[in-house]
Amino acid sequence: MGRIYAVPYQGTVTSAGGDADLFELIPASNKPIKLRGFRLGNFSEFGDAAEEAVRVSVIRLPATVTSSNGSSVTPVPLDSADVAAGFTAEANGATVATTSGSAVIVEELAWNIRMSPMEVWYPDERFCPKAKNAEGLFIRLQSTLADDISFAGVAWVEEE
Prior knowledge:
By secondary structure, the protein is mostly beta strands. Helix content is 0%, strand content 52%.
């Protein structure tokens, strides 16, 4: 079992941008990663009038991955004795990443943003989405929001 890191983020997901990469996780060379779980929450849209269901996908992009505009997030080791993570992380990319290969949707989810938080866990590592050299894992909002939301979330990543 490898080291576990948290990738926390909070910010605004805008309705103007369409789809968004909520989390982008790119492994370092020769250090594969596994997504162990994630939590998504909204802290601005409450009440029946704000009820909205959106599509969230866990995606692996193989081959050459191109992304550009998320906020850089420093992964936090859950064990203070662990070294800094080798993988890189970004959050809230309004322009979704692309690949020179074919994107692989690992999991499709629906999230009612009024029902927060949404939690997804992969306790058995055989079911964890994985990425290795030249790949990336993405938690992508695949729906255009009716209006902006204040968003908070975390992805837990295991690095070998």
